[in-house]
Request: fold
Amino acid sequence: MMSLIDLDDDQRWVPTHVNVTVLRARGLRTKGKHGSRYLYTIIQVGKEKYTTGLVEKAELPEWNEECCFELLPGILEAGGGETTPRGAGTCC
Reply:
């Protein structure tokens, strides 16, 4: 999604959301002595997080999950890195 903003009489389209798709993973390291039987991923945009569902341990685990984060105006502008996006953090 995008919205139109007016900056000093210069109108332009800026993104309002970012959609992320987690397809699969490879080359994962085992955590702990024996590792878990299940795997998941965590996606973070600013302070907002999205956690995928659990999949059984495999050499190439697949999720095929989507999530959507809302971006605050100015987050992509120069110096806008201090603005924390308020993400929806939910599946799209």
About this structure: Confidence is low (pLDDT under 50) at residues 82-89.
